[in-house]
C-alpha cells in the first residue's frame, strides 16, 4: 500500500520550516500535504516522492514521525464521484479514519487519499475497485 | 479588644514555666522515641540511651535532626512507638518518590491535637455559637479531620463538607448560615468569583471569619480576602509530621501565628549549617512534637523558611509568634494547598514508555487558582502517527498523574529533544505565579 508520512510537530512558529528545510536537504519532493491541528501540537501529513528516505531523514533529525498505509484513489474530477465513492464504502460498513483529496487537472483528474482501519483495508480496496475507481500504485502516487 | 482564651493559664504562662513543661515533655517524648527502631538507632549513635541524657533544654541540640527521608525510609512502622491496639488513627501523605510517610495517633494524641486546635479556634474569637464549614480536604490529609476535631471540641456546629464543588459550598453557606470557614486562600478567592453564578449575594451570607491555611500566602492576599468577603481571615500553620493544623495560629490581633510552645519546641536554624540563627532572624523551622506518643518526632526539618517575632503580642499570650512562611529549602511546590515534589511527576513520566524522560512542570494562576501543566516529550520510536494514540496517551498520563499527586494537571505533548535533558541540574519547574 502507498505510504503517507505523518510528522508530530509542536504548534509553534518555525517547526514547519524546519521540516521543509530538511526535506529540501534530502531532495524530497512534496506531492501533497495537510495539517491536523490538535491544540498544543499538530500532525503534518505528507505525500512525497520517496517516503522511506523522507522518514529516515526526519527520524535522523530526531523527529517523531511514522509511515502510514493509505489507499490513494484516482478519481475523475466530476460532480457526484465523491458521493459515489463514499456511499460504496458506507454500504459495506467501512469507516474512513482520515481522508483528503486534491484536483490534479480541473474537470479531469483528482486524487483521494483514504486511511481505513487495518482490518478492513483489503475489503475497502475491493469495494473501491468494484465502484469503478482505480487505485494508484505506490509509484504512481509518489511520481504524480 | 476582647481576648478569649481556651486555656488561659497555659497560654499566658511565663517563659520559665513553659520551659519547664517543654523539658518534662521532651524527656517523656524521648522515652517513647526510644521504643521505635528508627530512634533507637539514631539516638544510640548520638549517645542518647535514656531520657536522663537530656538534663536541660540546651541538651536538645544533642539530638539529631529527623528528615522526611527518615520517615520514608522507615515506612511503615519504623517510627511507631505503641502497640497497634493503642492506635486510633493513621494519616499518610504521598511520598516524594512513591514511598509515603505515615503518622500514627493514639487516643490521647488525637485528644491533645484537638485541644491545641481548639485553642487556635478560640484565639480567633470563634465560639460554640459558630457554624463551621470545613472546606479542607478530609481523608488521609490532616487538614480536614484535624480542624474538625478541634471545632467539635469547641462545640461549633461542624459541616464536614470537604473541598470542591463550589456551587454546593456557596449554597451550604447560605442554607446553614455558616459563620466560619476553613479553606485554602486561593480557593476562598475563587469561591468569591462564583457567587453570582450560584445566584447568591454576599449579603445573604452571615460569614464572619475564615481560617486560611495549607498554602503560604502574603499579607496582601489576606487583605484582598478580607476586603472582598468582608470577613476576618486568620493564618494557620501546621504539617502532618507535627500532627497537622494547629501548630501555630493567629489570635484576634492577626499579627502572625502563636506557636504553642507547650506542644511543640520550635528552633529556627541556618539550613546550611544546622546552627541556630540569631533571635528574630529567618531560617528553617525545626519542630519537635511534645504531645504525641504513637509517632514521636524529634527535631523535624520542616523545610519551611520563617522567623520568630521577638516582641510580645498585645493579647497577652507568651507563646512566640511564627511569621508567614517565606519559602522552602527544598523544591516542594504548593499547588492549591497540595504539596507536590517534582520527583513525583518524574516517577510517573518514567514509567510511561511512549514518552521520553524529559519533562517540564509549569505552574500558573488561572483566575485565583493555581494550574499545573506537565510537558512531556513523545518517544519517536513508539509514535504510530495516530491522533487517537496521542489523545489516549495524554489521557493516560493525566490519569496516572492525578492518582499520584491528587492534582488534575494539563498534559502537553512535545517533540523529542525539545525539553531540557534530564541529566544535571536542568530546570524542570517553571513557576509563573506572581511573587507576592
Large-scale geometry of chain B: globular
- In round numbers, the mean pLDDT of chain B is 93
CATH 4th-level superfamily of the largest domain in chain B: ANL, N-terminal domain
Q: What is the count of distinct domains of chain A?
A: 2
Structure, described:
- The complex is a heterodimer of chains A (about 140) and B (about 425).
- Chain A is about 35% helix and about 40% strand.
- With about 140 residues, chain A is of the alpha+beta class.
- Chain A folds into 2 domains: about 1-70, VC0802-like (2-Layer Sandwich), CATH 3.30.2130.10; about 70-140, 2-Layer Sandwich (Alpha-Beta Plaits), CATH 3.30.70.
- Chain A is globular.
- Chain B folds into 2 domains: about 1-330, ANL, N-terminal domain (Rossmann fold), CATH 3.40.50.12780; about 340-430, ANL, C-terminal domain (GMP Synthetase, Chain A, domain 3, 2-Layer Sandwich).
- In chain B, the strands form 5 sheets. An 8-stranded mixed sheet of chain B has the order 4-3-5-6-7-8-9-13, sandwiched between helices. Chain B has a 4-stranded antiparallel sheet with strand order 10-11-12-14. In chain B, strands 19-18-17-20 form a 4-stranded mixed sheet.
- In chain B, helix 10 (about 340-350) crosses helix 11.
- Chain B is globular and about 70 Å long.
Amino acid at each position: 500500500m502507498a505510504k503517507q508520512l505523518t510528522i508530530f510537530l509542536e504548534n509553534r512558529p518555525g517547526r514547519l520550516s524546519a521540516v521543509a528545510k530538511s526535506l529540501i536537504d534530502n531532495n524530497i519532493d512534496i506531492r501533497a500535504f495537510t495539517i491536523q491541528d490538535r491544540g498544543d501540537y499538530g500532525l503534518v501529513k505528507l505525500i512525497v516522492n520517496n517516503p522511506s528516505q523522507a522518514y529516515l531523514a526526519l527520524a535522523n533529525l530526531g523527529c517523531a514521525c511514522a509511515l502510514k498505509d493509505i489507499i490513494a484513489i484516482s478519481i475523475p474530477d466530476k460532480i457526484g464521484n465523491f458521493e459515489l465513492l463514499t456511499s460504496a464504502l458506507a454500504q459495506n460498513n467501512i469507516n474512513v479514519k482520515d481522508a483528503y483529496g486534491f484536483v490534479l487537472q480541473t474537470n479531469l483528474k483528482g486524487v483521494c487519499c483514504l486511511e481505513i482501519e487495518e482490518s478492513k483495508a483489503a475489503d475497502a480496496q475491493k469495494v473501491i475497485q468494484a465502484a469503478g475507481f482505480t487505485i494508484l500504485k505506490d509509484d504512481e502516487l509518489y511520481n504524480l | 479588644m476582647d481576648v478569649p482564651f481556651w486555656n488561659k493559664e497555659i497560654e499566658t504562662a511565663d517563659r520559665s514555666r513553659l520551659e519547664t513543661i517543654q523539658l518534662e515533655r521532651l524527656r517523656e517524648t524521648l522515652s517513647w522515641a526510644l521504643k521505635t527502631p528508627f530512634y533507637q538507632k539514631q539516638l544510640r549513635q548520638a549517645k542518647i540511651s535514656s531520657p536522663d541524657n537530656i538534663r536541660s533544654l540546651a541538651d536538645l541540640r544533642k539530638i539529631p535532626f529527623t528528615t522526611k527521608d527518615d520517615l520514608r525510609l522507615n515506612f511503615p512502622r519504623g517510627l511507631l512507638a505503641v502497640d497497634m491496639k493503642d492506635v486510633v488513627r493513621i494519616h499518610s501523605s504521598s511520598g516524594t518518590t512513591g514511598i509515603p510517610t505515615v503518622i500514627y495517633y493514639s487516643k490521647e494524641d488525637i485528644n491533645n491535637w484537638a485541644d491545641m486546635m481548639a485553642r487556635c479556634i478560640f484565639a480567633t474569637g470563634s465560639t460554640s455559637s459558630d457554624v463551621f464549614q470545613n472546606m479542607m480536604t478530609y481523608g488521609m490529609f490532616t487538614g480536614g479531620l484535624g480542624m474538625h476535631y478541634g471545632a467539635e471540641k469547641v462545640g461549633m456546629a461542624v459541616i464536614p463538607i470537604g473541598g470542591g464543588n463550589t456551587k454546593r459550598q456557596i449554597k451550604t453557606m447560605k442554607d446553614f448560615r455558616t459563620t466560619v470557614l476553613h479553606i485554602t486562600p486561593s480557593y476562598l478567592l475563587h469561591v468569591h468569583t462564583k457567587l453570582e453564578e450560584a445566584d447568591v449575594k454576599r449579603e445573604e451570607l452571615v460569614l464572619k471569619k475564615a481560617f486560611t491555611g495549607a498554602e503560604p500566602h502574603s499579607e496582601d492576599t489576606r487583605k484582598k480576602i478580607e476586603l472582598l468577603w468582608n470577613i476576618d481571615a486568620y493564618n494557620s500553620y501546621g504539617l502532618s509530621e507535627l500532627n497537622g493544623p494547629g501548630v501555630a495560629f493567629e489570635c484576634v490581633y492577626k499579627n502572625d501565628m502563636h506557636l504553642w510552645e507547650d506542644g511543640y519546641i520550635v528552633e529556627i536554624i541556618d539550613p546550611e549549617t544546622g546552627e541556630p540563627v540569631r533571635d528574630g532572624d529567618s531560617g528553617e523551622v525545626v519542630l519537635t512534637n511534645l504531645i504525641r506518643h504513637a509517632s514521636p518526632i524529634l527535631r523535624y526539618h520542616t523545610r519551611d523558611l520563617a522567623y520568630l517575632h521577638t516582641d510580645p503580642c498585645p493579647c497577652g499570650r507568651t507563646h512566640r509568634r511564627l511569621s508567614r512562611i517565606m519559602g522552602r529549602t527544598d523544591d516542594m511546590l504548593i499547588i492549591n494547598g497540595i504539596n507536590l515534589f517534582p520527583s513525583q511527576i518524574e516517577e510517573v513520566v518514567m514509567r510511561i514508555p511512549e514518552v521520553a524522560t524529559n519533562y517540564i512542570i509549569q505552574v500558573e494562576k488561572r483566575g485565583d487558582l493555581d494550574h499545573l501543566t506537565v510537558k512531556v516529550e513523545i518517544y519517536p520510536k513508539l509514535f504510530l502517527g495516530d491522533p487517537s494514540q496521542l489523545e489516549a496517551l495524554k489521557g493516560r498520563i493525566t490519569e496516572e498523574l492525578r492518582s499520584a499527586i491528587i492534582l488534575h494537571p494539563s498534559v502537553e505533548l512535545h517533540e523529542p529533544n525539545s525539553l531540557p535533558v534530564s541529566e544535571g541540574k536542568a530546570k524542570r519547574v517553571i513557576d509563573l505565579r506572581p511573587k507576592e
